[in-house]
Every structure is written in structure tokens, then in C-alpha cells.
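User: What would this chain look like folded?
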Amino acid sequence: MDDFDRLLDELVRVGHSPRGKYSAEKSWRLLERRINPKDAYRRRFIGWTLRAAAVFLLAIGSWAVYEYVLPSPMQSIHAEGDIRRFVLPDSSVVLLNRHSSLAYPKRFSRNDRKVTLEGGAYFEVCKETRRPFLVSAGPVTVKVLGTHFNVDAFPAEGQIKATLLEGCVEVTASEEAVRLHPGETAVYTRSNRRLASYREQEPEACISWRDGTFLFENLPLSEIALQLSRAFQVRITIADETLADYRIRARFVKGESLDKMLALMQEAGHFQYEWEKNGTKNTIWITKEKR
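Assistant: Here's the prediction, encoded as C-alpha cells.
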């Protein structure tokens, strides 16, 4: 390269080349391209490939941070006076009961699919062996891989129930756990923090609310009053405790009024009811039938 510089200096001295326009480094690159154009193209191609690879790796790294490191934003769905149907990010289907809410991440993590329920919901979970589906309902957690089940976890009620229709689930609470089989219900009692399970006589009755039907299969009047109170957002009080365990079998289709339901049941249950209206807060009192 020093010899090349001396040659340029000599050309400048005799007036054949302006030294400021050319330099050894620039002239050598030009000469190299003319002597071996294939090598120059190969170097440009390698340089372009390396830059493209760097951009690709940066994009992959950014995606990995977004997908696996940064927490996914949470979102909520609510059902007020009507039953609502939603599809979750993993394609699982949720039917949300009246006056209920469900919180879930915009995208599930690579380890699990966790949602938080307040109220009642029916789940049809897509099966994924490596990512269990977790329903957190207060102190109770329902763990599944893929199945159909119903959860009632209304904050104002003394019990949380999970009923399995298909598949297999594990219900845990207060360091206790029960594994359910189709047709079984797990019950967590808030007052004593105990978890138990039993077999349902009519499992379909637990999910009749999905189409707006009320199906009472030999239920105690206290449970019926609870379901109607929740559905119609009115307080129903059983004044006489001896009526609370009276069992009734009845079925009401969507659209029937609360008055009509109570009027039909009072004949079978030997009770009577009366509305007490106090502004926006209404109460229905159930008392023994007068003879």
C-alpha cells in the first residue's frame, strides 16, 4: 500500500492525477473490484446476510420477551341481567351466568390457562395436556385439562359449588382436594372452610340456567329462594324456618315471571308469599300457608 501511495504522489508531481481526489484506500478498492468482481459481490452478499440475520434475531428476541417475559394484560367480561357467551384465547367456551364476571389474560401463558370467576359460569374447555385450565373462585381452584363443568361462586352465598358434566377435574381449597367424576359436585362451605363432594341425582339441573330455564329437582325451598333471588335481583326471605327444607319439584321456561313461579309453587309447598316494596329495595317474605 506504501508503494501505491508513492506512485500516486509521483503522478500528482507530474500533473497526471489530483491527489485530493484519489487516495490509496479508495483506489485500491476500485482496482480490487475490477480485478476480482466475484469476490466483491460475495463480500457484499455476506454483509447483507449478516445484517438481515441481526434484524431477524432482534425481532425474535423482542417477540420472546413479549410472549414469555412481560405479563399479559388482563381483561374482564361481565353478564348483568342476561346470560352471555364468550370464547377465550385458547378457543374454550364460557357461558357466564347472570350478575357474574370473569377475568382472564389477553393471551394465556405457556404454563397454564388461568381465569378468575366471580359468580356462576359453565365451561367447555379445549383439551391441552401441557397447559392445565385453572378457574380461581375465591378460596377454591378448579383444575382441568379439557372438560365440561359448572361453577357457582357468588360472593354473597355461603357455598361454592363445582359440578362436573364431562371429563375429570380436581378441586382444591384450604389445603384439601377432591377429584370429581362426571355427575359429581364439590362443595366448599365458607363458614367452616371445609370441602366435600357428593353425586348429583340430576346433574343437568345444575346447568339448566344456560338457556334461561329453572329446573328444580326435589330442591329445598331455601335453595330455590336463593336461585330466584340471584336471577331476579330481589331479596327472598323465608320467615318460617320449618319451610326452608321443604322440597319442591318444578320446571319453568325462559320468560316466566317471578310472580308466576311463586304462585305455582306455593300450592305445592303449602306456603304463601308477600311483596314488601321499599323504594328500590324489594323483599319477598315467604310464610306458612294460613288455614
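The first strand starts at residue 74 and ends at 79. If you want, I can go into more detail on any region.
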